Amino acid sequence: MAKKKCPECKEGGGAPLWMVTFGDLMALLLTFFVLLLSFAQLEIVKFEQAAGSIKDAFGVQRIQQIDPSPTGEKMITTDFNQEIILVKIKEKLEFILVKMIDNGEAELIESEEGFTVRLGDDNMFTPDSMKIKPEMISVLEQIANQLIDIPNMVHITGHTDNQPANPYSPYPTSWAIGAGRAASVVAFLEKQGIDPARLQARSNGSYAPIESNQTAQGRGRNRRIEVTISRETQPVTVNQFMETPHFIQTNAPDSPG
Fold it and tell me: What Å distances lie between residue 9 and 5, 17, 221, CA to CA?
């Protein structure tokens, strides 16, 4: 059976040939400008500030609170940057503490909050006191050097065992002992130049053990200082209302631990 021959197109029928190329060009240009628009970000805060300055210049004054919602891009960028900071700091601290980690005197623990450097209390302080041991000074100095230029909050938490404290000491409870030793570390880090607004002293006393207090080894593990580098960053403060911080002594009165 013979195939039917395709009828010849009538002259002048359909769109001209150049229209196809022109349509492709317009689609590409539209895509290009949409891409440029997606890259552009309107700085709402700067725009509002500039507009407010112009209004003030013309005598129109109105107080407005500018609280723009964060964009998804900014939130993702902030979280990504925090992860990079934490990974780099963790690697550097692992190198600094490698001998102590190998000897079981220090640990690095990751958590949702960030990561924690766990230091044995018996290695940190002289017996029955808040005084930091001389051999730990250089270790804490190296830790401080890694923390000084980052915006992250640093939480120092003191832990003790469940043994009763001396009721006649300035620190008659295990909670007070943990708080005093955490405060000693905070004061030391502050002296190294870390912004005190980023530092927090905490205490869990004997209420967060990691081993049983039934053995001497377990009690020794429970007496510890934890330095947590948080994902949380330093809150913005109004500098003109901040007073110059006064350093406190790290050698607190002696106390049982």
Answer: 12, 14, 92
| pLDDT tens readout for residues 225-241 | 999 999 888 765 544 45
- 114-120, strands of its sheet edge to edge: 106-110, 114-120, 224-233, 152-159, 199-205
- Closest CA relative to residue 56, chosen from 65, 44, 45, 48: 48
Q: Strand (E) positions, the chain?
A: 106-110, 114-120, 152-159, 199-205, 224-233
Angle at 217 between CA 215 and CA 221, to 5 degrees: 115
Q: How is residue 129 written in tokens?
A: 């006191």
Looking at residue 59, its amino acid is G
CATH number for the domain spanning 217: value is 3.30.1330.60
Tens digits of residue pLDDT in 145-183: 999 999 999 999 999 999 988 777 788 889 999 999 999
State how far the Cα of 136 lies from the Cα of 143, in Å rounded to an integer.
11
Domain of 100, in residue numbers = 78-236
Phi then psi for residue 2, to 5 deg, are: -75, 140
Per-residue pLDDT averaged across 234-249, rounded? 54
Query: Is residue 159 in a domain?
Result: yes
List the one residue out of 129, 131, 138, 132 whose CA is nearest residue 171.
129
Position 133 in a domain = yes
